[in-house]
Amino acid sequence: MLDRFDSRGAVSAFAGPVLIFHGRRDQVIPVRHASILATAGANTELVLWNCGHNDCPPSWLELRDPLESFLRRHGILDVED
Fold first, then answer.
1. How far is CA 30 from CA 35, 55, 78, 79, in A?
2. What DSSP string runs through 22-55?
3. Does an H or E element contain 72, and which?
4. Phi then psi for 31, rounded to 5 degrees?
5. Which residues of 43-55 are buried (b: 16+ CB within 10 A; e: fewer)?
6. Considering the entire predicted model, what is its pTM?
7. What is the pLDDT of residue 77?
8. What is the CA radius of gyration of the chain?
């Protein structure tokens, strides 16, 4: 790659919470990269789905619950249903 981005450095330098979604069957960006990135930050969470690179999330409805839960846990979303 000509333009490299230090994702691990960015996550480790960021003081806020980080949520990473990734497909277990991704053949473009290996899942081990997401696992490594998830260990870079003190407040980082990884959600893995059974999908590849361009078919994640399997259903947009599957995105809502983990995202909403993450936002609520970190005080980013406090609106009641």
1. 9, 15, 34, 35
2. EETT-SSS-HHHHHHHHTTSTTEEEEEES--SSS
3. helix 60-73
4. -60, -25
5. ebbebbbebeeee
6. 0.85
7. 87
8. 14
List all residues 6 or more positions away from 57 whose beta carbon is below 8 Å from its beta carbon.
Answer: 21, 49, 51, 63
Q: What is the pLDDT of residue 48?
A: 95
Q: What is the separation, in whole angstroms, between the first and last Cα of the chain?
A: 44
Domain boundaries, the chain: 17-73
pLDDT of residue 52: 92
Token digits of residue 15: 């003081």
Determine the pLDDT at residue 62: 86
Mean pLDDT by 10 residues, the chain (81 residues): 86 96 94 96 95 87 91 85 53
Task: Answer yes or no: are the C-beta atoms of 8 and 37 closer than 8 Å.
Answer: yes
pLDDT at 6: 93
Cα separation, 63 vs 60, whole angstroms: 5
